[in-house]
Amino acid sequence: MQPAETLGINIGYFKVHLETHSDEVLRWVKTLYSEFPRTDLQQDFHDFHIRISPPTQLRRFIRPQIQFYFNEHAPFVPLPRSQAVPMFEWGLNWCIANHAHQYLLFHAAGLAKNDTFVLLPAPPGSGKSTLTAALMLNGWQLYSDELVMIDLKHNQVHGLSRPINLKNNSIDLITNTFSNSVMSSKFHDTAKGTVALLKPTGYSVQNVLTKRPVTHILFPKFERDSHLQSKTLSKTDAFMDLIANSFNYLVLGNAGFQCATQLVDSAECLTMKYSNFSDAFRFFDKLAS
Amino acid sequence: MTTSLLIQILRNPAGVTELNGIAWSQLINESRTANLLGKLFWILKQNKLEKFIPQYALNHLESEFKQHQLQKNQSVWELSKVFNISQKIDVPILVLKGAAYFYSDQNAGEGRTLSDIDLLVEKKNLKAMEAALFANGWISKEVDDYDEKYYREWSHEIPPLIHYKSGTVIDLHHNIFPVLRHLNPPVEPLFEHALQTEKCGTLHPHDMIIHSATHLFWEGEFDNGLRDLVDIQQLLQSHVVDQENGWQELATRACALNLGQPLFYALRYCKAILYLPVPKACFKLLRQENKSAMRIPAGYGLLIMDWLFLHVLKPAHSHCASSGDALARQLLYWRGHLIKMPGKVLLPHLLKKTIKSLRKQEEKKLPDLN
């Protein structure tokens, strides 16, 4: 085992203190987060102290494993060592979703162009990450692929332009369609199948501190061979579907209710069915014009 | 011994005005490990220090406090259901520990989190209460025959009950300490002394302190040791420190319940660790009045206990780790078992437990072979 190395990364609204023994984690984190500034390890406050290391049990000699430690405690079971890089991403999502209640947090993607901000809440499997990746590589600013943070004071979105987690067929689809994409290697046999991480565009990272109000709430659904269809969604349905995708709506109580109602009231709420990128791009660019 | 920054701030909350970024990281991390993050926020607010908390730290303190408030509301709501059930079958019931602090709005409950709701009934009412809870959706977690027997015959509680819908866990006790060693106090005086409001019963504040001390200093597990000590400190501040004869009444009560020894430790470490001013006369009285089989150590004996307890009553974080921590933890774990069970019961019990855990590991391995 190589000695541990420590990195401090400022991802905009959080500072992450990462210590790891895994050279694979170091290499990919340095690549995927290269546009983010480093923190001062001797001076700065860090929000999340994360360590990615082999678990302490003796069985690491039998089958190499990797463990995620948050503040020296392991909240998950260990994974095979080959999944160390996605484990860092998932673990960091977990840290934010459980400890950042200054925000109303949604399991959603968020993208912006001109004065338009589209919030895309959607359950896994709706093609959200693939669409997000494609839009980002087509000039939209990535706010988040997994976790949209709405600040409770001003009802604005705070950016979290971290790498996009792509799964299975989407990986090759994005790599082959967009020559400007920077992708990590593939990590096989994870709980989500094969995954790879797409580096956020420089534009997204450089503008991570630009806060925005939500102008559109859009529930996308990928459906093979379908024509692009979009319908207006009633405010009540949008509200219920939106809070169903929140991580901490219950924790926030009244503040969460106020924030969610205001979001729905001030945004246009839509559903969208699509089957190909070019239709989707046209549709989104119309929203932003 | 390396000092914990959290303990320094608990002694002197105004110390936060001096902290830089990296020190705030350390304070937040230690507090999270010790399950005292919400409590720390409440203490800083009480001391009007909120404006000295930088935004980056405030985010974490407020986040934790919001989770605490949700849990408090949920627990109090669950308790109101439990009290309705107990009233219907006319069984007096008392809430213990964290849930009691929530229910009776104690300072000790502010910012605190808990994992289950602890309830106390008299043994003669245990069956009726268990059946009534069962009828209302609290079902027993699956335990094997041996654990079932262990709980029912040797312990002071029945296996945990979990609500099928809300997931709330209730620990139903018929005593405040395992019954095997006969060190446990009779339960009737606790009920006689209890505070009954319209629906709810909690222990008398003195008994709350004594119970919390017994739990902390006799059970042998210290994952939440510092948090429990802070509970005791806050109960003392609310109900004893400024009361005329407060210390004397508390000490006399503990000795009458044969629980003078754990109270002695609780006061000793509230003083040593949290700098709570406990009068010398109170320690003296405890020594005089303690007639229990559990003697209060003096001289070298007390030095050894200090070494042990000072190693474990701190956050289990590498910032404040020192050599001897693991040994102290292990020795106190064994001590806890020895207090709970006489040797002739303890040895077969541990043997049985070891065999069971080995067998479980074996079972877990099996799928890997296919």
From TrEMBL, chain A:
Keyword Transferase: yes
Keywords (A to Z) from UniProt: Kinase, Transferase
InterPro entries for the chain: HprK-rel_A (IPR027600), P-loop_NTPase (IPR027417)
Protein name as annotated: Hpr(Ser) kinase/phosphatase
GO MF annotation, one: kinase activity
Organism lineage string: Bacteria, Pseudomonadati, Pseudomonadota, Gammaproteobacteria, Oceanospirillales
TrEMBL record, chain B:
Domain of life: Bacteria
InterPro entries, per database record: NTP_transf_5 (IPR039498)
Pfam family, one: NTP_transf_5
Name of the molecule in the record: Nucleotidyltransferase family protein
The species this protein was found in: Oleiphilus messinensis
